[in-house]
Amino acid sequence: MAPANKTRVAILISGRGSNMASLIAAAAASDFPAEIVLVASNRPEAGGLAFAAERGIATLALDHKAYPSRAAFDAALQAELVATGIDLVVLAGFMRIFSAGFVETWAGRMINIHPSLLPLFKGVHTHEQALKAGVRLHGCTVHYVVPELDAGPIIAQAAVPVLPGDDADALAARILVQEHRLYPQALALVAGGRVRLEGDRVMFSDDVPPADGALLSL
């Protein structure tokens, strides 16, 4: 049975949007608790915009270079999100840092996926960081967005082994497979009200088994 009132989601991208595509595919199911109503990008040339438009989803290009400041860009994006009636913002390869005010406005209503097992390897070049550190496990993390970069409360993680002979590209490819599996599951939990943020802690509903709550796989 389809949810009576689906959570209205905006996905923000900066490129091809492979995670966006996995979310759109998942949301096509009638019982998925979220509806993707907008895909927006800070780069008008982002390939993911055409992908979304071809599937009947509204798109928006806000070129960050056209705005005099970070705050001005964030204000323009905020106005569009409000006008579209967005409940939840989902970052999928969105390569901009928001102002603290924007993040605070969406506290508990904005999530991101990061290609490492946070709190390890924040920032960029995470696969290179993991190989340099010599870790045996690497992976991806879905977390709530807070003003500090890649520091928000963790919703879900998936791990893969680091194999002998791995380079950054091979590791990235295996982790991307897990990202495409993990992010739709995590979005379903958040959009369906089975996960919520209380203060700086992620709380799971009683009907989410511990294994599903962690969503940790090897």
From TrEMBL:
Protein keywords: Purine biosynthesis, Transferase
Active site (UniProt): 114
Enzyme Commission identifier(s): 2.1.2.2
Binding residues annotated for N(1)-(5-phospho-beta-D-ribosyl)glycinamide, in chain numbering: 17-19
Reactions it catalyzes: N(1)-(5-phospho-beta-D-ribosyl)glycinamide + (6R)-10-formyltetrahydrofolate = N(2)-formyl-N(1)-(5-phospho-beta-D-ribosyl)glycinamide + (6S)-5,6,7,8-tetrahydrofolate + H(+)
Positions bearing the site annotation: Raises pKa of active site His: 150
Residues reported in the UniProt entry to bind (6R)-10-formyltetrahydrofolate: 70, 112
Pathway: Purine metabolism; IMP biosynthesis via de novo pathway; N(2)-formyl-N(1)-(5-phospho-D-ribosyl)glycinamide from N(1)-(5-phospho-D-ribosyl)glycinamide (10-formyl THF route): step 1/1
Formyl transferase N-terminal domain residues: 8-187
One term of GO molecular function: phosphoribosylglycinamide formyltransferase activity
Database matches in InterPro entries: Formyl_transf_N, Formyl_transf_N_sf, GART
Source taxon at top rank: Bacteria
Protein family membership: Belongs to the GART family.
Entry function: Catalyzes the transfer of a formyl group from 10-formyltetrahydrofolate to 5-phospho-ribosyl-glycinamide (GAR), producing 5-phospho-ribosyl-N-formylglycinamide (FGAR) and tetrahydrofolate.
Protein's recorded name: Phosphoribosylglycinamide formyltransferase
Lineage: Bacteria, Pseudomonadati, Pseudomonadota, Alphaproteobacteria, Hyphomicrobiales
Gene that this sequence comes from: purN
